[in-house]
Amino acid sequence: METIKTAVIGATGYTGLQLVELLDRHPEAEIAGVSSESAAGTSLRDQHPLAPDLTLIPAAEVPFREIDVVFLCLPHTQSAPVAGQALAAGCKVVDLSADLRLRTAESFEAWYHTAHPAPGLLPVPYGLPEVVGREPLMGADCIANPGCYATSILLALAPLARSGLILEGTPLIADCKSGVTGAGRKAKASLLFGEVHGNFYPYSIGRAHRHIGEVEQELAALGLAEGHLIFSPHLLPTDRGILSTIYVQVADQDGGMTALEEAYREELLVDVLPRGEIASLAHVVRTPRAVLSLTAAADSTLIIVSVLDNLMKGAASQAVQNFNLMVGLPETTGLIPATHLVQVP
Amino acid sequence: METIKTAVIGATGYTGLQLVELLDRHPEAEIAGVSSESAAGTSLRDQHPLAPDLTLIPAAEVPFREIDVVFLCLPHTQSAPVAGQALAAGCKVVDLSADLRLRTAESFEAWYHTAHPAPGLLPVPYGLPEVVGREPLMGADCIANPGCYATSILLALAPLARSGLILEGTPLIADCKSGVTGAGRKAKASLLFGEVHGNFYPYSIGRAHRHIGEVEQELAALGLAEGHLIFSPHLLPTDRGILSTIYVQVADQDGGMTALEEAYREELLVDVLPRGEIASLAHVVRTPRAVLSLTAAADSTLIIVSVLDNLMKGAASQAVQNFNLMVGLPETTGLIPATHLVQVP
Amino acid sequence: METIKTAVIGATGYTGLQLVELLDRHPEAEIAGVSSESAAGTSLRDQHPLAPDLTLIPAAEVPFREIDVVFLCLPHTQSAPVAGQALAAGCKVVDLSADLRLRTAESFEAWYHTAHPAPGLLPVPYGLPEVVGREPLMGADCIANPGCYATSILLALAPLARSGLILEGTPLIADCKSGVTGAGRKAKASLLFGEVHGNFYPYSIGRAHRHIGEVEQELAALGLAEGHLIFSPHLLPTDRGILSTIYVQVADQDGGMTALEEAYREELLVDVLPRGEIASLAHVVRTPRAVLSLTAAADSTLIIVSVLDNLMKGAASQAVQNFNLMVGLPETTGLIPATHLVQVP
Amino acid sequence: METIKTAVIGATGYTGLQLVELLDRHPEAEIAGVSSESAAGTSLRDQHPLAPDLTLIPAAEVPFREIDVVFLCLPHTQSAPVAGQALAAGCKVVDLSADLRLRTAESFEAWYHTAHPAPGLLPVPYGLPEVVGREPLMGADCIANPGCYATSILLALAPLARSGLILEGTPLIADCKSGVTGAGRKAKASLLFGEVHGNFYPYSIGRAHRHIGEVEQELAALGLAEGHLIFSPHLLPTDRGILSTIYVQVADQDGGMTALEEAYREELLVDVLPRGEIASLAHVVRTPRAVLSLTAAADSTLIIVSVLDNLMKGAASQAVQNFNLMVGLPETTGLIPATHLVQVP
Q1: Which residues of C touch B14 (CB under 8 A)?
Q2: What is the tens place of the pLDDT at every residue in B182-198?
C-alpha cells in the first residue's frame, strides 16, 4: 500500500513541530513538504535538535498537486486563502487555524474583528470527533481543527448540553490554565522566560476570548443557549498542558456525571476518571488523550476538571485524528502507542 | 525607647523563616528566641543561607516571661496549647496556625475532624485588619492570623457581603492557585521538584478544604448565608503567590465594583487596580500587599482576581500587621519599605 | 516466539518507573512482576497516572524461577543480595545500583565507605556497550548498569584515554549538571520544589563523589592513570538531563576530536555533533541517546560537552540495551523509535 | 542635605529596572529622569507592576545639565556617545555597557569586532571596587561598570593572580552558569519560556566570549599572563544568578585559599565561606553581595565557586557602589539593608 503524502504549512511553530513529529512516525503517512516563510532554505532541525532534517520551503512552492493532505499551521486570516488553493489543487486540508471553525463569516467577524479571508469556503466540519461524531469528518475534504481551549471546554460541556440538565440562565464558568506553548513561538517580550518564571495571571477574561465563539457555536448545535459562557484563560509557568476547571449548575448532579461517563465510555482518547479521583496535567502531557474528572459541589454545581496537552489533543494529535478520518484510516492510527509514552516525571 | 522582645515558635518552616526575616528588619522588634524541635541546637542559618545566625531551641525552653510577643508557626492542634502557656506567662500571642481562627470548638471540629486542643482560649479576634477593622485587634492579647487562601478570598468577598449585593442562593466560586510554599516545608514526595515541575492540578475541591470554615464564618458576620462557597485550590509550579479567580453573581455589577473600590480606597496594603487592568502574581510576590482586579461578565457575574504572596500578606507580613496593632505601633511599621522591593523579574 | 519475562525490583522510583515504561512497549519483553516494599499491594499507577496498572508486590514474593531477566532498581548495598538470589534461581540480572560496578570489594569499600554486601558476585561486566564493547555483555548472566554521571563522563573520555593523547599529569575536569530526578524520588527537604526552584549549586565536588571510582576504573582499563579526575556535580532546576562540560589537555586537539568522532561513527545511540555545533539537553531529553560536542580551547585544552537523559541513557534505556545484548536481541530493540519522540519543546 | 539627582538611560531592561528600584530607595539619591526610546511617553510601571510610576522620555530629552549622575544601561556602541554628551554637560557617568571597560580602542575592537564609538573617552576606571581598590573610583567622573560574568570570575581570580601562586602555562577554567535575565529583556525566540524551560546548554565556549577581554585585562594588571582563560558560559533555567565553578592550578592550595580569605576579610559585600561549605545561588539572589567557596582538588587544582546575582552585584548594585564612591558616600549606602532581604525560599 502506498503512503499518504502530507505537507505541513507553517512547520516551525510549536504546533507545526509537534505535527511533524507525529506524521514522521505515522505508519501510513509520508511528509512530502514542510514550509516556512522566514526560515525557508534552512533545515527544520535548526528549529529543534530532534526534528527531522527536512528543508523548509515557502508555502507558495509546496506542490499541492502532488500532496494528498495538507495541514495548515498558520495565523488566522492567513490560513483560509492557502486552504482554498490547496482544495483547488485537489488536496485535502486540515486547517489548524481559527479561519474555518465558525460556520459563518459573520460569526468570524464578530469574534475576530476582521473580515473573513475566504467566506466561500464556509461552512466546514468542526473536527472534534468525540463531540460532533465521525460522520461529518469521514472522507471530508476540509476539516477545521478546534482550538485548544475550545477542545478542553467542549469535551466537558457537550455531554451536559446534550443531556438538557444545565440550569437555564446560569453562567457556565470555565477557569482555564494553559502552558506557554499555547501562546505560540513568536518572540514576544511577555513570553520570555524571565517574565513567565515565577509569575501567573489571567488574560482576556469574561466574554473577551475568541474561543468562546466556537464553543458556543458547538453547544448551540446541542441545544444550549449562547451567551452564558464565562471563560478565564490563565498563563501557567510550564511548557505544555491545559487544565480547565469548569463550574456548571445542573438539575441533577449525579445525572450530569453519568452523562459524561456515558459519553466517553467507548472513546479511546477521552477518559473520565473514577469519581473521587482528580485530573492533573500529568495525566495527559505528551499524550494524545484528554482526561476529565467530576466533583459535585454546593448549589447544584458540578465541577469538571478537563485536561489535555495543548499541542496534542489541543492541536496536532487531534489533527491526526481528523486526518485519519479523512483518508479512511482507523482514527487512532499513529497515536495510540503514544498513550504509552509515560512521562516520568 | 526599648525594642519589643519577640519569639518565633516553629522558625524553620517557610512561614517561620519569612517571619524571622521581617522581624529582623523591623525597627521596633527584637528577636529574642527562635524555636524548632527537630533542629534544636543548630543555627537558623543552616535552614537558609540568608537567615540570621540564631541558635534554635526547643519551644519548651523559650522563656515566655521575658518575651513580649510570641508568634506561633506550628501545625494545627500543636499551636493552641503553646498559646495557652505563653498567655499564662503574660506574653501576647499571634497564632499563625488554624487553631484559633474559628470562634467555637464545634466549628473547629467540624472542619478539622479532631477535638479542639484548647477550647478555653476561644474566641479570639480574627486578624484580617482590612476586613474586621482595627478595633478588635488594637491592644489584643491574642490574635488568630488568617489562612493564606482565606485572606485572598475574604478580601474579595467581604465588601460584597457587606454590600448585600450578592444574589441569594447562587454559588460563590473561588478558583485559587497557590505556589508550593503554601504546602509547607515538610519533606513529602508529592512536593518534590520532580513531581511539581511541569505539572498542575486542583486538590480538595468543592466543599472539602478547611479554609472554607473561616471564610464562611467571617462572611456570615457580614450577613452572608453559609454553605455557598465553592473553593478549588490548585498547586502552581512556582514558589510563592496565590492568585484567586473569584466568580460572584451580584444584583449590580457596577455597584459591586464600587463597593470593592471604596472598601480599600484608604488601605495601604490592599489595592484595587483601575478597571480594565488585571492582577498578576508579579504585583505582589515578595511584598506585603494584596491586589484585586475587577471584571464584569455574563449573567450578573463579577470576576474578582485577588492576588497576594502566601508567605507575606497570606502569613508573615499579616502577622506583623497584627503585631503592630497589638503593641500600638502604626500598622505598617517594618512593612512599607518592602512595598518598594521591586521584583524584577 | 515467546516474550521474555522480566521483573523490575524497586519499580516506584524514577528509574523504576522509566524502565517499566520502556519494557511495557518493548516488543519482545513482558513485565511479569513489579516490586516495592513501601507500596506493596497498591497499583503502580498510583505512583504516576500514566504508569501501567500493575500491582506492586514485595521483592521477596517475586517468583524469580519464572522470570527470565530481573532489573534491580534498589539503593546500593540492598541490591547485590537480591542479585544473588535471582542468579541462584536461574534468572539473569541487570543491576542498576552501584553494587556491582566496581570490580573488587576493596574498590567498593573505598568509595562507598561500607562493606560490600556480596563480594562473591564480583567482578561483573560493566554495561556501557559503546565503551567496553559488546563482547563481555552478549549473553552475560549479570551486568552492572553504569551510573548516570559515569556514563556521561566515560563516553567523553574513553576514546581519548584509548588514543593516548591525554597529557600526563594534567587534571581531567568534569563539570556536570544534573536534573533533580538524578537524586531519586525519596522525600527529602532539599529536593522540595520550594528549595530547588530558583536555586543552583554544586555538591560533593573535587574527589568526593562516588562515581569517580567507576569512571577511573574503566579509564584505567584503557591505559589512563587514576587520580586525575576532578568531578563537580551540580543540581539543575529541571527534571531530567545531564550536561557535562569536560576539560582535558591533549597532545593534539584535532587528533583528540577525530578519536571521538571515529569512536562513535557507527554507534546508533551516541552521536558526535559536527564541529562548531554545541550539545544541549534538548538534544537528548526523553530519548535513549547521548550526544557529544567538541571545542578546542587554549593551552591544549579540549572541551567536550556530553549530554544524556539521566533516566534513559543514564539508567533505564541503557539497562534495556544491556538486556537486549544479554538475551541476544538487536541492541536497540524497543529503543530506536523513541529517538523519534521529538520533544517540542 | 540635598539629594543627588540621577537619571537612568535605558530604564526598561532588566538592569535598568533593577537600578531604578535601588535608586528609588537610596536615601541620598533622587531619580530625575528615566529614558527609553521604544517606550517613551509611557510609564515605567507598564514595564513591571512594582516599578515606580515615572514617565519615560527619549534619551535626547534627558536634561543632563540638571542631573548629577547618569547611569547608562544601553547596548554596547550606543552607550559611549551618550556618556560623552553627559560628561560634556558636567554630569558624572556610570556606564553599565561594555563600551568603556577595555582600556584601549584596539582591545575593544579585538573583542567586539566593531570600531569603538568614542575612543577619546578611554581609559576609564574599571568599577570593581574589591579588585581595583577605591582609589581610582572615589570622585571619578566616569566609571565603567564591569560585566556580570567578569565580576564573578575576577572576584575569584584576582587575589590568586596577585599572590603569584597560579602555575604558569596552565589553563584557568571558568565554567559559568547564568540565569536568563543575564541575556537581557529583548524579545528573542531562544529566550522564550517554552525554549528555556527544561533545557540547559553552554554557548560561546572556549575563547569566544567577550567578557574574556576585560577579565584578562584586569588580571594582567595584577601580573598574570593573558591567553589562558577558558570561559564556558551556560544558560540556566532560572531568572537570576550566576554561579561560576572555577578551576585553577596553584603552587600552594592552602596558600591560594588563604589569599582569597585575606583579600575579602574586610569586605562588606564579598564573603568567603568557611572551608567545607559550598556556595549556592540561594546565598546571593536578590542581594548585593558575592560569595565564594573554596575546595582543594587533585593535581594542585583549586576549585572556587563564585556566586552573585547578575542584576545586582553583576550590574545594578555594583553600579550603586560605584555611584556612592563617585559622590563621596559610604560605599554600601542604599545597599546593606538589602543584605537582610532574606529570600525564603
Answers
A1: 194
A2: 999 999 999 999 999 99
